[in-house]
Q: What sequence folds into this?
């Protein structure tokens, strides 16, 4: 038997076609606000294009502001519950730097910006990703309000990651992040984990 | 720009070449022990073949015992921190049934067997996966003993999932699961999230 055995299909994860043009030419993202606007912009575009859930995320080098990975939620179109925006952004970033940890060897420090507070799965992935900082816009409560479940995340979860050197900043441009969630709800988008 | 933009690489996830032959011809796995022996066997083979960390997982239909998805840890060879055995097994299973939830529509009930207690990321993924039951062999303490971190998982995390209808059975064939961890340690395997 070979890798073509249908019981063990190859999984292919590709960003939506619109993403490269949407992000445009590489440039440094010089502030927290600029980095968050990209994450929120990805979320909004994902809703407007109908290519997934109302979530976007991006990984940056902290000091240079270079974009290293980006992702949008692709759960429904890819039929894959793992493909939250943060997971996609981590996978892209790790593939691009060629290491399973963004804190590996000679790499500069990295951070994650996400349009909404990470769910339990993505918070766990954050710990393994090697990013040293996580910034989000909309909060868990905002996601709950449109019936998205965020899973078992507690104050002690954040404390666990903090003790391992990860910093958090929540609620940056919260209104803009929340507006994307409401836009999705108005559009009648699937709540795939409600 | 196209999907070939190097900033947004396609991610391809393929099981190790040995997996189809190792699993062999499809047959029902008629008991918890039989299902767990497959998960532990995958973990052991992954260590012996040098294709990743000491963890294996498989998704089954509860009633028929049909194998629906299988995975091994591929973090180091794939340079991808997300690719724990459980995540790979969920992705494979969801691709195979063609739905992002294994609890979708007309599907029969599914369950996850894993050679070691799930980490925080994988426990979160469990909630989104649609499986109704999780069974593991080696425990969090066994993983910790060889310096693998399991992340922020608390009694309240399990309670959260139980309230959403997910059942747990820990420590089934624990000695066999733990033996694979110790085998990996003796072989000098990378502790990639210690």
A:
């Amino acid at each position: 038997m070979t890798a073509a055995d249908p019981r063990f299909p190859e999984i292919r994860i590709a960003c939506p076609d619109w993403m490269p043009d949407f992000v445009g030419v590489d440039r440094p993202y010089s502030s927290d606000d600029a980095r968050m606007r990209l994450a929120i912009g990805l979320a909004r575009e994902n809703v407007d294009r109908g290519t997934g859930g109302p979530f976007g995320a991006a990984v940056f080098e902290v000091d240079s502001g270079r974009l290293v990975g980006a992702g949008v939620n692709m759960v429904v179109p890819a039929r894959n519950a793992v493909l939250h925006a943060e997971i996609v952004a981590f996978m892209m970033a790790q593939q691009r730097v060629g290491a399973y940890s963004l804190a590996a060897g000679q790499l500069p420090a990295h951070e994650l910006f996400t349009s909404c507070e990470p769910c339990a799965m993505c918070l766990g992935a954050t710990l393994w990703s090697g990013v040293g900082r996580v910034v989000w816009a909309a909060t868990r409560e905002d996601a709950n309000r449109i019936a998205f479940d965020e899973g078992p995340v507690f104050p002690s979860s954040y404390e666990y990651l903090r003790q391992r050197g990860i910093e958090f900043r929540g609620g940056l441009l919260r209104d803009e992040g929340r507006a994307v969630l409401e836009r999705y709800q108005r559009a009648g988008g699937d709540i795939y984990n409600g």
